[in-house]
Amino acid sequence: MSGRAVVQAYQYALDPTPEQERTLRSHCGAQRYAFNWGLRLVRANLDQRAAERSYGITDAGLTPSSNWSAYGLRKTWNQRKDEVAPWWSENSKEAYSSGLANLASALRNWNDSRTGKRAGRVVRFPRFKSKRVAGSCRFSTGAFGLVEDDRRHVRLPRIGTVRTHESTRKLFRHLQRGTARVRSATVAHRLGRWQVSFSVEITRVDPAPTRPGEVVGIDLGVRYLAVLSTGETVPNPRPLETALPRLRRFRRRMSRRSGPDRRTGQLPSRRWLRARARISALHLMIRSGMLGNRGLARRVADVGMAEFRRQIEYKAAWSGVRVQRADRWFPSSRTCSGCGVVRTKLRLSERTFDCEHCGVVMDRDHNAARNLAALAGAQAADTSSLSRRATENGPAGNPRQTCIARATGNATGSPTRATRRREAMAQDTFSDVSRTVSE
Ligand SMILES: [Zn+2]
User: Within a domain: residue 120?
Assistant: First the structure.
């Protein structure tokens, strides 16, 4: 089986020395400085041209517009850096060029959005980067990556060899096998600590399915994140929701303590500062719970079902599992998974499905998941060579939130075959899917 190249990010928390931390901060500051410098330049140029236009100067007579491509900005920066930032050599030149590259793409997005070349949400003119917002710095040339024969350190230009908080084993093995190439490294201060994120080109050799022909139905919902046709359930942990009462309590506590007052110049009390520190710690916890957790369920619960689907689909493809979405009108909740009789109505409040015809009594979501599995199995019967697949459906009872039938890449990684078999369905046991997804 031949491999295919994908770009994946490998992120590691860092444990820098105080000296390294200073250098990291300096580089992020340098990136921000270059971004803001370039933005000021472009702004001044645009304002100048607008003013000239308002005096009635024709386009030919206007001050020439500045070149806001990454290349153009970098060129101007190099001409003027000795004058505007005599300290520039303290940081890697990559810090400045990545700041200018970010600015160039922000300006391009704004311009494309303005001229209708870019679809989607309106992109506003870039804003100055504040010192208070944690910055980042990207390196795309120079020595960066893992340290040879060492799974606890990364190498960064100018910053040196930095200890990682966790093992770099997975990426290490890819590099050892020669199936990975590190394209860039971005350092940033996020969630209270320094992190490095490597953008890595990986040549994936997707494994052959270990259990071909097996099928699992997945019913997505709110009470449980997912209910499987095997009867397993994936809880919906909702980190934000569970943290909200505590957040409310801390906010109330803070409001009863005396804070700063800009008008009278009153300084905040120590008790107020302490209360505020607890709130920000809680915010950090919620965020890291939502983003940093390794378990799939915890990561996606508050992010939403669209994210769940996105992750299931691409990770399933990696393991040779094919995901098939059921048609949004497929009556997965109203059909009896025992005898196939379709009920005309099933209220959302009815948590169990009981069939008058064959006497089946079953949890509503479990019944739906079994129907999805059966649907996939029936349609897979005539497309037998395809391997494991999974079927999922949106929350029961609301067709608008149910997704449309769509086939993603199949087990052998051949897209043409996947499209041809658009109608085909199949599955997998949930434990398999979850293993795939939380990998
Ligand atoms: Zn029945």
Answer: no
Rounded distance from Cα 362 to ligand 1 centre (Å): 10
Q: Which two tokens stand for residue 197?
A: 């994120």
On whether both 255 and 283 belong to a single domain, the answer is yes
Q: Are residues 230 and 372 in the same domain?
A: yes
**Distance between CA atoms of residues 321 and 388, nearest Å:** 5
Q: With beta carbons less than 8 A apart as the criterion, state whether 216 and 373 touch.
A: yes
Q: What is the pLDDT of residues 298-312, one digit of tens each?
A: 444 455 677 778 888
Residues 329 and 374 in one domain: yes
From residue 44, alpha-carbon distances to 39, 104, 288 in Å are 8, 16, 40
List the end-to-end C-alpha distance of the chain, in Å, as a whole number.
Answer: 21
Strand partners, 180: 202
Cα separation, 277 vs 423, in Å, equals 54
Instruction: State the amino acid at position 249 in one-letter form.
Output: R
Q: Give the distance (Å) from ligand 1 centre to CA of residue 201.
A: 51
What are 153-192's pLDDT values in tens digits?
A: 999 989 999 999 999 998 999 888 888 999 999 999 877 7
Confirm whether 128 is domain-assigned. no
Domain that holds residue 280: 237-293
Q: Quick one: pLDDT at residue 399?
A: 36
Rounded to an integer, the average pLDDT of 291-296 is 48
Q: Is the dihedral of CA 88, 91, 93, 96 positive or negative?
A: negative
Q: Is residue 210 part of a domain?
A: no
Same structural domain, 287 and 308 = no
- Which residues, in sequence order, are bridge partners of residue 203? 5
Helical H runs in 221-269? 239-255
Co-location of 377 and 401 in the same domain: yes
State residue 350 phi and psi, 5-degree precision: -80, 110
The two beta strands, 136-139 and 215-220, are unpaired
Looking at the domain assignment, is residue 266 inside a domain? yes
Q: Report the separation in Å between the CA atom of 368 and the middle of ligand 1, taken as the mean of its atom positions.
A: 13
Task: Give percent of the chain with pLDDT exceeding 90.
Answer: 30
How many structural domains compose the chain?
4
Q: Are residues 308 and 432 in the same domain?
A: yes
Locus of tokens 């997704």: 403
Task: Tell me how far the alpha carbon of residue 336 lies from the centroid of ligand 1, in angstroms.
Answer: 5
